[in-house]
Amino acid sequence: MKIGFLNPWQNAADNQIFHSLAIVATRIGHELVHCANSMEVAAHAPDFVLAADSIQPKLNDVPHYAIIHASRDLYLTTAPTTTTS
User: Fold this and answer.
1) What Å distances lie between residue 68 and 26, 55, 84, CA to CA?
2) For the chain, what is the radius of gyration of the CA atoms?
3) Using one digit for the tens of pLDDT, what is the confidence trace for 4-57?
4) What global pTM score does this model have?
5) Alpha helices of the chain — where are they, by DSSP H?
6) Which one-letter DSSP state was computed for residue 28?
């Protein structure tokens, strides 16, 4: 199984997470590929994607799952923002 790791940041803690998860994936017979954007997700064609950042948009048909490593209170107490044209 090929798993995408969607992480737009460079030199961030998420980069260390990728390397740790890649080792674990390999040990159990899977492949973890790094993707910085939706174009790279499409190019790698993973079975699903782990999204390391909640602000990264999902722009293709591959299933995406959020990795939430911040306090869940941040998500439960912050009102969603909307934009108007």
Assistant:
1) 22, 12, 27
2) 14
3) 999 887 777 667 888 899 999 999 999 999 999 999 999 999 999 998 876 776
4) 0.74
5) 13-27, 38-44, 72-77
6) T
